Amino acid sequence: MQSLASWLTDWNALFGQREWPVYCTADEVNIYFVRPNLFNSVNLFHFLCLFLHRCCPWSRCCGMGDFRPRTVWLGHPEKREQRYPRNVINNQKYNFFTFLPGVLFNQFKYFFNLYFLLLACSQFVNELRLGALYTYWVPLGIVLIITMIREAVEEIRCYLRDKEVNSQIYSKLSTRGTVKVKSSGIQVGDLIIVEKRQMHLRLTSVAHSSPPLPGSCFLRTDQLDGETDWKLRLPVACTQRLPTAADLLQIRSYVYAEEPNIDIHNFIGTFTREDGDPPVNESLSIENTLWASTVIASGTVVGVVIYTGKELRSVMNTSNPKHKVGLFDLEVNCLTKILFGALVVVSLVMVALQHFAGRWYLQIFRFLLLFSNIVPISLRVNLDMGKMVFSWMIRKDSKIPGTVVRASTIPEQLGRISYLLTDKTGTLTQNEMVFRRLHLGTVAYGMDSMDEVQSHVFSYRFSFPFSWNNGSSRAPAATKVRKTISSRVHEAVKAIALVHNVTPVYEANGVTDQAEAEQHYEDTCRVYQAASPDEVSLVQWTESVGLTLVGRDQSSMQLRTPSGQILNFTILQMFPFTYESKRMGIIVRDESTGEITFYMKGADVVMAGIVQYNDWLEEECGNMAREGLRVLVVSKKSLTEEQYQDFEARYVQAKLSVHDRSLKVATVIESLEMEMELLCLTGVEDQLQADVRPTLEILRNAGIKVWMLTGDKLETATCTAKNAHLVTRNQDIHIFRPVTTRGEAHLELNAFRRKHDCALVISGDSLEVCLKFYEYEFMELACQCPAVVCCRCAPTQKAQIVRLLQERTGKLTCAVGDGGNDVSMIQEADCGVGVEGKEGKQASLAADFSVTQFKHLGRLLMVHGRNSYKRSAALSQFVIHRSLCISTMQAVFSSVFYFASVPLYQGFLIIGYSTIYTMFPVFSLVLDKDVKSEVAMLYPELYKDLLKGRPLSFKTFLIWVLISIYQGSIIMYGALLLFESEFVHIVAISFTSLILTELLMVALTIQTWHWLMIVAELLSLACYIASLVFLHEFIDVYFITTVSFLWKVTVITLVSCLPLYILKYLRRRFSPPNYSKLTS
């Protein structure tokens, strides 16, 4: 049994099915180190290496059906206790053996194609044969060949992408030293070295590290959970004492890790070293882990691989991709079923008119074959080829460079989007924070006046040599006003430079040694690491105005003044920011003066009750928030030594409490948070992607509702929504209060119901409660909102929201994202769009369409989506019209000749009619357009008309059916009335009139002529005229050269087409469509 499991596992690695595809890029194979930049010395990290893999369809047979805990020996993958998934990805739908049967199955599982297969097979029965076999098998073969070529091209492209990723080279520690290994060759237990700028694996980390925070690193998790802040991670302590990373192979140690699960916020494990005296056993938690799709700051990382394949967290948080079938295809399929019903009815009527004489059941089948053109076999191939053309046009559009179409089967879906769900970080924003404003109450400094702040900082320092350490220095009375302004600026700048959790890190730049750079605080070698990009932007701003953070560890901080003086501060206490408190604080002691100061910054909603009374805080916070800035209120409070000692004693006692520890600690801290001096307000902007605001305005005017789903904080998401004008200035915002119970959710929903035209902001936890108890009510209210912002959303929650929108509204959805945490949402949506950004290509590879910037979405939908849908609708209805025309003629012919099941046209005529004679003009409709692309972008309201599905509806279908019946009847009855003696004259007159009618109808349908359309019309006409020489079996060649033939064909053609031209003119004259008003 074990050998069977092994064989099946190897078979899966080679020829797996597409049950668990995982999408990744060259940047992303080492999913744990996207852009590492932290350490110089070799940092030993114990990893949880969850590599990308797809699931084996026989995983339970292979012993991988149930997730189990594991013991992993460092550097010894051969000691594994169980089989683990191989570290390969395979995004292909088929393999060498399954390609042909798989493609055929996917084609014939639909009624449309199965119907034509049965028709073709019926011609092997003599009683049912109506003509040559090739008249049925050749069209079917052409359809299948074109489909297989398209599928083969996509499979080859997918194979090459997978091969590129699986062949990436990494360094592995072994007994032979450092060796190179392909990503597909990495196993659980391997010690992998991940270099700077190399995207890393899934890891639990353990490390040697350099100062300032020994054995620690920062990482960013926005690809995994959408949060943009940096998180501090710690190594296993006992590995810090090893001289080099190679010594890991010399010790007997292992990691015991929990079974794989979807929780990205927790981890349970232990690290054991057996050869120690005594043996060392340390616990591992989330603080020791580096999950997939996180970014390490810099340096070199060494880690042991714990998880691979389907067991990685990001894969377990990714929903299985569904095979997307466009709504347009479903509608066309519905119409073909109606046509098939009409085919059956016509066949039964014909047999009924024969009074069911003789072997009537065979006659039914013969009539089904005779009228089989009612359901056009060329419809599917025309639509598929049209989609390929639309995809090519999207890729070649110079105004949206870099756009890639990965799903060429659904471009027309882009023309009917009702809900657009977008990520925030990296999609709407650049994730680059910029300091925009400093407000002191009586004076505000913007970007254009920061030089004044800098001059205050420099002048204050130079005028008062000791003032940086003593804000109350004695100054001449004559400069009192100047001193007051400078003093306030100086206090604000110093507070901003101190109240944060930022750590400066020094890197060697190839010339400067790191230790030397650190010793001399080299500016060119310094980078800032922090738990939030907001904090980094604030510290970078203080550096730009003259006060620089040059050093920090867990107990001290160093600032450098404009004159080069180093100010030393001891960190006495640190109160980190939490989602509940919405503020952070720090107590520091100035080493030169001994002064103790409590600094605090936080959101205005909480700081308003903490700072001393003032009359400007609320107003200015509102003004800055309306500009889309993230506002922080900065304050301070001076403490005496006695006050601090009393606080410390109470604080330590509260932290030792067993019961209600958090409440007691918060109470002690709040005792300090009273009557604090308000220093300033800061405004930071998360820079938006280029042209996000006009793009969102275009989408809104087009009738598309935009929802923002992000894993970021509520305040950050709200600010971005305002800044991007997702929420307009005249719209209110309802922030859904946190709810945990059914009763709370009920009350909050009732409060929300009373508001109108109001944007909704809700957190993921509250959303989960609402969906659990009041799914229908919540979705009903949310769908009425002009905009919705969901923050703190898990990847699976994003996919759930998309699914609920589809189920509750029945409308088409489009999901846009750039990170690994957006893959589930992208795959669940009707159209998934990936943005290739700084976070790699995981989302773009999982998406149906890939763009380089969010602004390209406007043109993708307004121009290409609109054109693709309208062109597909016109093409499909014209193909149906073409088939109904000849079927109507066949019905008239059979009726006249005593309901005989005899074909009107045979052999090459029936094949040539839908191929070389009319194919090019009909297919040239894919080049048609009603308005120019510039007009479509300028008037997005044109897109709104498509949301009702009017280009392809039962009304338009019925109109085309009536046109087909009219023209087919006129042509056939005209030919019967005007022919003289020979039956072949009926064939010649009717078939020529039919070809000319189709060419004229194409011309009537076209709205904007393209030179290729003219070529197609002339080429088809030339092909028909030239082929008449070879069709003497079906057409009297001498007759078609007579004047009698020409005038009869001309009359019939005019009678069939002229009324339609007149009707079109009258309609455009008295009831023109919207677009015609813009083009005239």
UniProtKB/TrEMBL annotation:
Domain P-type ATPase N-terminal: 76-136
Membrane topology: Multi-pass membrane protein
All copies of domain P-type ATPase C-terminal, residue ranges: 845-1072
Binding site for Mg(2+): 423, 425, 818, 822
Gene Ontology CC: endosome; plasma membrane; trans-Golgi network
Cofactor field: Mg(2+)
Keyword Aminoacyl-tRNA synthetase: no
Protein's recorded name: Phospholipid-transporting ATPase
The species this protein was found in: Myripristis murdjan
